[in-house]
Specification:
4-stranded mixed sheet; 53% helix; alpha+beta; 26 helices; binds zinc ion
Length: 680
């Protein structure tokens, strides 16, 4: 339910005058409204995306180290360069705060490529030794518990989650997992591209095992075993579209029930091994998965499980090892899967790694340096304006009964707005970070995070906790918390600018706010009530009408082509992207209403030759200017609930009467859909 798929990117906000200037490599911040991004040779009513972004796309080819390059990636890079400055300063000898010392040490150890290279695969030896000693199924489960505590994924996921029926309470939670390729389809589908991907994957696994010291023959047979085992997991897994429905993931049971459902795992002993607080009940999001894999746990030889675990150790940590591992990992995951040409320079990787491992230690420093005191206030005003428009919009809907409207308004009123950064930071004081041991630094951070997560089981929900770090250029809505969250990282151009006119800011951050609010009322969000509990508050006929209207969105987007190349054509998955598309359409509509309410009589004054309505839509469109590799587009079509930039723009404006009015489009124009979709 985020604004877009993050690529493990971390960034920083720049407020004028506060940008550190000591480092020459600080990237240029993007601008809010870019006339040079336009392609004026195209009629906006024919292809608005090309009109808004054609110039930008022609002038901004994908850099070699990226698989996707858009205007928010420009912001990412800018933020990354600011974080880099913070870390370079913190890593230098001198007087530092405890937090600076910690992130500085982490970054230094990561940048110490010489030490990392000299170690080769050595950091993994203790894990390989543990796995070698395993002699029975119980030992496999003990190792899985151990690896999960150390931050390495294997077979399934275990931790705490909000109780779907009592959002004030955290409960234990078990879910499917354990695949390496980005989706179960890669293992199951028989089209030429999926087959090719599996072949390349086996080659990659073999290569990695060889680098870790195995003989080629052994490595080849191990690689085949890994694919076979992961294919079994994929066949047992619930697909992404089914996973979207919270009802499909709502299966509360006792540990005894689970033990009956999946007897071969020995879950009671496993839970003890994880170090989790004792509990009787848990949610098992995908019972069928555990039932199926339990049966296989009996039939698949132990040697194969051990091979799989060694692979997961190797792959989870490839980025922390010496150059040959890093390069091979990139060759498959970055280059083959996503189409990037070269790996990012080390400082970028180390900066991202510091943000993802110690995000709330780096976050306070970043916020202090970049996020002005008035940032929160100004943003809150915008949020309130869009919330007011959403309330007005709900009241005006002609398809919804008053009964459902009252509950919808109640839910809207209950939404909590979180802006910038958390009120309370995580306490890393017990996490030991040294200056020369990248591998163990990451272990320490992972151990801290998984223990923190497990220890929430049985406790009240901490609704103040954030799911993204402050420098992140993204935003999100949480159904169980009924809150919208805007990290400081997104509160800058091209989304928000202190110097831009309201029209442009409402097209940017205003549409983001509207998007997150609408998530509370999309195919997933509408199933949660004002308190964040799974409860149907819709009248039967309103629920039916909602689904009829969302079917229109499903059909609209399912007709869009994600990629068409020599490997064939891939369309978008209308059901997978339904929630995000609903949020985009609703978000733009209410942000526009909020703008018009604010402008009142001054709503027609032109700036740079465009009316405020036109500037609003251009501002919205330009957030999505991007160039993407075909490889990335293929992976995203299968895994990303967000549509590509082109359709986030054209898919929305072609439903929008306000857009069509702003640009005087006529019936029959491509940007005027005959059967326009309107949910919110
Ligand atoms: Zn979203």
């Amino acid at each position: 339910m985020s604004f877009f798929k993050s690529i493990a990117v971390s960034l920083v906000v720049a407020c004028a005058g506060l940008v550190p200037s000591a480092f020459a490599q600080t990237a240029k911040p993007p601008v809010s409204f870019d006339l040079s991004a336009l392609d004026k040779s195209v009629n906006p009513c024919t292809d608005f995306y090309q009109f808004a972004c054609g110039g930008w796309r022609a002038n901004n080819p994908i850099p070699g180290d990226k698989s996707r390059w858009g205007r928010f990636n420009e912001l990412d890079e800018y933020n990354l360069s600011l974080l880099h400055n913070i870390l370079e300063t913190a890593a230098k000898p001198g007087k530092h705060s405890a937090l600076e010392q910690k992130v500085g040490n982490f970054y230094s150890a990561c940048m110490d490529e010489k030490t990392v290279d000299a170690l080769g695969v050595k950091p993994l030896q203790p894990e390989f030794d543990r796995i070698a000693k395993i002699s029975d199924k119980a030992g496999v489960m003990q190792q899985i518990a151990h690896m999960q505590q150390e931050g390495m994924s294997a077979l399934f996921g275990f931790g705490s989650s909000t109780d779907m029926h009592d959002s004030n309470q955290m409960i234990a939670s078990l879910g499917q997992g354990g695949l390496t390729l980005p989706d179960r389809d890669y293992y199951i589908k028989d089209d030429p591209k999926s087959k090719e991907t599996r072949e390349k994957y086996v080659e990659h696994v073999q290569k990695m095992f060889e680098l870790a010291g195995e003989k080629p023959e052994q490595a080849a047979s191990d690689a085949k075993n890994v694919l076979a085992l992961e294919t079994r997991l994929a066949q047992a897994a619930m697909d992404r579209v089914a996973m979207r429905d919270p009802k499909n993931r709502d299966h509360r049971m006792t540990v005894a029930d689970l033990d009956k459902l999946a007897p071969n795992f020995g879950f009671p002993a496993y839970f003890v091994a994880t170090g989790a607080p004792k509990f009787n009940d848990l949610n098992v999001s995908t019972p069928d998965y555990f039932k199926t894999i339990s049966a296989q746990f009996e039939t698949v030889p132990i040697a194969e499980w051990k091979t799989y675990l060694r692979w997961k150790v190797l792959k989870s940590n490839a980025g922390l090892l010496s150059k040959p591992f890093v390069d091979e990992n990139f060759r498959f995951s970055g280059q083959y899967m996503n189409g990037a040409k070269e790996i990012e320079v080390r400082w970028k990787r180390c900066t991202r790694m510091t943000d993802s491992n110690l995000g709330e230690a780096l976050g306070p420093i970043y916020v202090e340096q970049t996020f002005g005191a008035d940032g929160k206030e100004r943003m809150l005003k915008l949020v309130e304006a869009v919330e007011a428009a959403m309330g007005k919009n709900i009241q005006q809907l002609d398809w919804m009964s008053d009964t459902t409207k009252q509950d919808a308004l109640k839910k809207l009123k209950s939404i909590v707005n979180n802006i910038g950064y958390p009120d309370k930071w995580k306490d890393y004081s017990k996490v030991t970070i040294t200056r020369n041991d990248l591998f163990n630094n990451v272990r320490a951070a992972d151990r801290f995070e998984s223990a923190r997560n497990r220890n929430k089981i049985g406790k009240p929900t901490d609704k103040k906790e954030w799911g993204m770090t402050p420098p992140t250029v993204n935003a999100y809505y949480r159904g169980s918390m009924n809150d919208i969250n805007f990290p400081a990282g997104i509160l800058q151009p091209p989304f928000f600018s202190r110097t831009a006119d309201d029209a442009v800011n409402f097209g940017g951050i205003g549409a983001v706010i509207g998007h997150e609010l609408t998530h509370g009322f999309d195919d997933q969000g509408r199933k949660f009530d004002a308190s964040g509990n799974l409860r149907d508050w819709w009248t039967a006929s309103d629920g039916k009408e909602f689904e009829h209207r969302t079917d229109c969105i499903v059909d609209e987007y399912a007709n869009f082509t994600a990629v068409k190349d020599d490997k064939g054509e891939v369309k978008l998955n209308g059901k997978l992207t339904l929630g995000e598309n609903t949020a985009d359409n609703g978000g733009v509509k209410i942000a526009y209403m909020a703008l018009m309410d604010m402008l009142g009589a001054s709503g027609t004054k032109q700036v740079e030759g465009f009316t405020p309505a036109q500037r609003f839509f251009i501002g919205y469109g330009q957030v999505w200017c991007q160039n993407v590799t075909d490889q990335y587009s293929r992976v995203a079509a299968l895994t990303d609930p967000h549509s590509p930039g082109k359709y986030r723009v054209n898919g929305v404006v072609s439903n929008s009467v306000e857009f069509q009015k702003a640009f005087a489009c006529k019936p029959g124009d491509p940007m005027v859909r005959e059967n326009a979709c309107h949910v919110w």
